[in-house]
Amino acid sequence: MVAIIDYGAGNIRSVENAVRLLGREVILTKDPDVIRTADHVILPGVGAFGDAMERIRSGGMEQVICDAASGGVPFLGICLGLQLLFEESEESPGVTGLGVLGGKILRFPDRSQKVPQIGWNDLYYPSEFSGTAGEEKGRLFRGIPEHSYVYFVHSFYLQARDRKIVSAGAFYGTDFDASIESGNLFACQFHPEKSETVGLKILQNFLEVSSC
């Protein structure tokens, strides 16, 4: 069973529909016991970093999310769900994130490109990525050629402290970290559920990861 963590953020139903399309049983939940017993856990979301952390903390969900993200069960953060896994965001100064991983969420530089980035962008696979033994790229991207296009909607981007966990990058006025992999913890800034065939393949790859 796939648990999608429902903390009141947007874009949850589209993730649910994509997982169901792939033939998996899925439940939207804020129940810690359901999250702890799930085969796979997804933390989706769109919206503001500070508001999301306030909802997570006021709902008593911070510890169960941190436990799930670091406990060996395959865990996927999507868009805001990626950002919340890190320590802080320039969107909400003074608000601490979940801090499961080290790094900051930065605002896109004020240049000629429009912010937020809304639309398709291509991915590259960084040479620094360490991955699992024998893997040349992240497990989310098995069967997906470099420079495949995925769908983004965001004004802020990740700068991970450990460059070896960055499994995909993209460029939008500046290079940014588009996906990470650390053990069975995965996260992507883009929306696989909106990325058509490539996105469904990414979700399928995630759902095929076993617990460690």
CATH superfamily: Class I glutamine amidotransferase (GATase) domain
Q: Could you state the order of secondary-structure elements as H and E?
A: EHEHEHHEHEEEEEEEEH
Return residue spans where pLDDT drops below 50 for at least 5 consecutive residues. none
Number of domains: 1
Beta-strand percentage range: 25-35%
Helix proportion range: 10-25%
What is the molecular shape? Answer: globular
User: What would the CATH topology be?
Assistant: Rossmann fold
Based on secondary structure, the structural category is: alpha/beta
Mean pLDDT: 94
Total strands: 12
Q: In words, what does this structure look like?
A:
Strands 2-1-3-4-12-11-10 form a 7-stranded mixed beta sheet, sandwiched between helices. A 3-stranded mixed beta sheet has the order 5-6-9. It has a single domain, classed as 3-Layer(aba) Sandwich (Rossmann fold), CATH 3.40.50.880. 25% of the residues lie in helices and 27% in strands. The mean pLDDT is 94. The two termini are 16 Å apart. It is of the alpha/beta class. The longest helix is centred in the C-terminal third of the chain and has 12 residues, at 196-207. It is built from 6 helices and 12 strands.
